[in-house]
C-alpha cells in the first residue's frame, strides 16, 4: 500500500506531462547520415556574431571582443584583421553589411563604421545621442543605410552617415528589444526585451504595431522566412510558423522536436527550402518537409558550442548562395550543400 501511495504523485506527473505534450507536435528526431556543413574552428575564442560577403570570394566576419576576420577564398579560411579604434575600447561587433564595395559595421557600445573600398579602410562615424545602442545595420543604396537600435528606433542616412533621420515616431513604447530582423523590402519585426510580445513595422510606416505572443512561453527570437511569413522560437524549445501572411497573430501549433533542456536560438532556410534550427549544446536540426519531421545534424552535435545565428546569403553579387552557422567559443559551420 505504501509503495502504491508513493507512486500516485509520479503517475499524476506523467499524465500531466502527456497532456502538455499532446498539445504540441513532437515527432522525434533521428540523426542524419550525412551533413552539408563543414566545421571551422578559430584560435580566437570570441563569439562570431555576423558575417557578410562582398562577392563570391571576399567576405568579413565580426564578433565579440573586437573580433573582425576577412576571407578571400569564399569562407574556407579566415585571417584576423584590426580596426583603427582605441585599444582600451572593447566593442562587441554585432552586424556587418555590404552592397558592392560599400559597407557598414556596427557595435556596442555606440560604434558605427563605414567603408567604400571593400573594407580596406573604415571610417568611424559620430552618432550623437541616439536612443539605445546600435543593433542592426542595412546597406540600402550608395550612401544610404538604415540603423536600428536596442530601443527599436530606426534611423536612415542618405549622405554616408553625416546625418541621420528618425524613421519611427515613438519607439519608446517597445521598452527595448531582444531580437530584431529586417527584410530586403524594409519590413521589420522585433521581440521585446522580456520576450512577452513582438512588434511589426511595415515598410513606409513610422509606427510599430505590438502583437501578443502565441502562448504563455516567452519569445526567444522571431524572423521572416524567404516568402515573408514569420516564424517564432519560444522558451521550452517551441517552434511556430505564421500561417497567414496577412494575419501575424495566426500561428501553428507549437512544434517541439527535441526536449533536451536547450532552447532554439535561430532559424534559417537553405536554398533547397530545408529549414534549419540551432540552439544550445550543439543542437542543430533540419526539416525537409516544412517542419513536419526533423533530423539532427551529425557534425554539429559533436561540437561544444551554442549555435546563435544561422545565415544564408543570397545577393546579386554572389553567383550562388552561401551559408554559415555562427557558434560560440570560436566555432562556425560553413554550408557545402
UniProtKB/TrEMBL annotation:
Domain of life: Bacteria
Signal peptide range: 1-28
Keywords, in A-Z order: Lipoprotein, Membrane, Palmitate, Photosynthesis, Photosystem II, Signal, Thylakoid
Principal subcellular localisation of the protein: membrane
UniProt similarity note: Belongs to the Ycf48 family.
Assembly, per entry: Part of early PSII assembly complexes which includes D1 (psbA) and PsbI; not found in mature PSII. Binds to the lumenal side of PSII complexes. Interacts with YidC.
Protein name: Photosystem II assembly lipoprotein Ycf48
Native source organism of the sequence: Prochlorococcus marinus (strain MIT 9515)
